[in-house]
Amino acid sequence: MSACALKEQLVAEMKRTMKNGEKARLLVIRTILAAIKQIEVDERIELDDARVNAVLDKMAKQRRESISMFEQASRSDLIEIEQAELAIIQEYLPEALSEDEIGKLISAAIESTGATEMKQMGQVMGILKPQLQGRADMGKVSQLIKSSLGAN
Predict the structure, then answer these.
(1) What b/e string do you get for 140-151 counting C-beta neighbours within 10 Å, with b at 16 or more?
(2) Which residues of 36-53 are buried (b: 16+ CB within 10 A; e: fewer)?
(3) pLDDT one-digit tens code per residue, 125-144
(4) Is the dihedral of CA 111, 114, 119, 122 positive or negative?
(5) CA distance 85 to 67
(6) Closest by CA position to 124, among listed 110, 140, 143
(7) What domains, with CATH codes, occur in the chain?
(8) Nearest-angstrom CA–CA distance, 49 and 38
(9) Residue 123 CB neighbour total at 10 angstroms
(10) Cα–Cα distance, 18 to 15 (Å, whole number)
(11) Is the pLDDT of residue 151 over 80?
């Protein structure tokens, strides 16, 4: 089984932040590694880069949702913490795709599946998820697919 380069990068970064005394950054990296380790222990597997990206994507989504809730509650102190954590998590995710790139991938997926109605959305998402995991907000992608299929 090949080693996970992303996980190795995170472990190396954890050691570096420990040496430099970057406590806030260290906390986030340890949280990421703990989430990865939890899945590895629960499922008795070693995660590959794609699965680590899925973990990072989930953690980023959780931070975005928290920021939204804290904005509604006018908790700027907590918003700042979540935004800082989100920024660190995003450093390890692949580069985000632009709206145009996402639109092209959605169009190609709809064309390849021949989807014309909403009940075929799962087929389109099945094609797109591996391509977009960690590179786009899947909730936003879902909305774009719905509008594309609704317009057909």
Answers:
(1) ebeebbeebbee
(2) beeeeeeeeeebbbebbb
(3) 888 888 887 788 888 888 88
(4) negative
(5) 11
(6) 110
(7) 5-91 (1.10.1510.10), 99-151 (1.10.10.410)
(8) 16
(9) 15
(10) 5
(11) no
